[in-house]
Design a protein that fits this description.
Blueprint lengths: L8 H4 L8 H11 L6 H17 L16 H28 L4 H27 L4 H12 L5 H13 L15 H26 L10 H47 L6 E3 L2 E2 L13 H6 L6 H6 L23 H8 L2 H19 L7 H5 L10
Antiparallel strand pairs: 1-2
Length: 379
């Protein structure tokens, strides 16, 4: 199926759903109480309910559409950093200056802000860091710095896209691995993995780890500036609120990472060689409303096929070519937080996937435990 006129404002308008959450932050900061709950209710429950009403969208835009024809789609990702910046730091200043919110009301507000900076901000950062324009890449860096997760850029570009669904990729969740053990593994391994990848990349050009071209200098400077601003606007309470929203954002990101590749493994060909990435190495969801909110992140197989393809042009795949989730990502991340329920829902799907694509593999134990050799020449 094909969509028409992907460049038009009406076609782009549904992808601006995220902007509605900014006035919800202002409302929650002003009114206090339980008003903050409107933010996750909008992001998680309303969009999931709309998925049930609107069903699946399996139409594809013309992938050859030029970036110059996608102005309104690109615009929402470009304007997002100022909006998120205002929500985080405006929120810190406001709650400290007015003093009308109790401690739990502040935590509720910054939980909601963390939902925004994780569910929206990091998703938009992911889109921006894959593009080639300096403005978009800088905006991606700023969004990641605002949740203290700048290393994600290196880990995602240099490790994840090369070694997804192999033991080298920390964010490829293994079969039967619960979310909480996965989360701890990613938090502890991810920064080290990113540093190792970046320094080896520099070494190939004959540069040392402390070379000024190492982006970790930029990561440190941007994150340090965000921390200093939080302290300057709100003191130690401001810093604590900033750190809390950053943790909530990272939790949201890694829940999504957990869902995207759970139990899906590339076949080991021997000697540390793995098959190329295929569409069947990512879980997909064609649910309409959550793809609007997450700017087509759920068309994940096509993103791994063409990483720099802009989000409105990402293609959906039939179930014969790529595995499909029963619900959109927001609902599936809720399931993931209850590991027994997750395994009950997803393990049969993984086993069916294995029978379909790899009937020749008899023993999956090394894949389940991550004991296969690391890929040759892996960064």
């Amino acid at each position: 199926m094909s969509e028409s006129r992907p460049s038009s404002l009406p076609a782009a308008a549904p992808f601006w759903l995220s902007v509605v959450m900014v006035p919800l932050v202002a409302l929650a900061a002003w009114r206090g109480g339980w008003w903050w709950a409107l933010i996750p209710a909008y992001a998680w429950y309303l969009t999931t309910a709309l998925d049930g009403l609107l069903g699946l969208n399996e139409a594809n835009a013309d992938p050859e559409t030029g970036a110059d024809q996608l102005f309104w789609h690109r615009a929402v990702t470009i304007v997002w950093f100022p909006l998120q910046f205002a929500a985080i730091f405006g929120g810190i200043w406001y709650v400290q200056a007015t003093g009308h919110l109790s401690g739990w009301e502040k935590l509720g507000l910054f939980f909601g802000i963390g939902v925004i900076s994780g569910s929206i901000g990091i998703v938009y950062a992911h889109e921006l860091l894959h593009q080639k324009t300096p403005l978009e890449r800088w905006l991606g860096d700023l969004l990641l710095a605002s949740v203290l997760y700048s290393h994600f850029r290196t880990e995602h570009l240099l490790v994840h896209h090369s070694w997804v669904s192999t033991p080298r990729d920390a964010v490829s969740a293994r079969y039967n691995e619960g979310f909480y053990s996965f989360f701890w593994r990613v938090l502890t391994q991810g920064p080290r993995s990113a540093w190792r990848a970046e320094t080896r990349f520099l070494a190939r050009a004959g540069r040392r780890p402390w070379d000024r071209r190492n982006p970790f200098w930029r990561y440190a400077a941007l994150q340090g500036a965000m921390l200093a601003l939080a302290v300057g606007l709100g003191g130690w309470t401001g810093l604590a609120l900033f750190l809390f929203q950053a943790f909530i954002a990272v939790w949201q990101l890694e829940l999504t990472n957990y869902v995207e590749h759970y139990g899906l493994s590339r076949k080991h060909l021997g000697g540390g060689r793995y098959e190329p990435v295929r569409p069947h190495h990512s879980w997909n969801a064609s649910h309409t409303a959550t793809n609007w909110l997450l700017i087509n992140l759920q068309r994940h197989s096509d993103h791994h096929t063409k990483p720099d393809r802009r989000f409105p042009l990402l293609q959906t795949y039939a179930e014969d070519d790529a595995p499909q989730l029963p619900l959109g990502y927001p609902a599936m991340t809720f399931v993931a937080m209850v590991p027994p329920f997750w395994r009950r829902r997803m393990n049969p799907r993984v086993r069916a996937w294995r029978r379909r694509f790899y009937p020749e593999i008899v023993d999956w134990t090394p894949y389940n435990t991550g004991e296969l050799p690391l890929p040759r020449n892996a960064l």
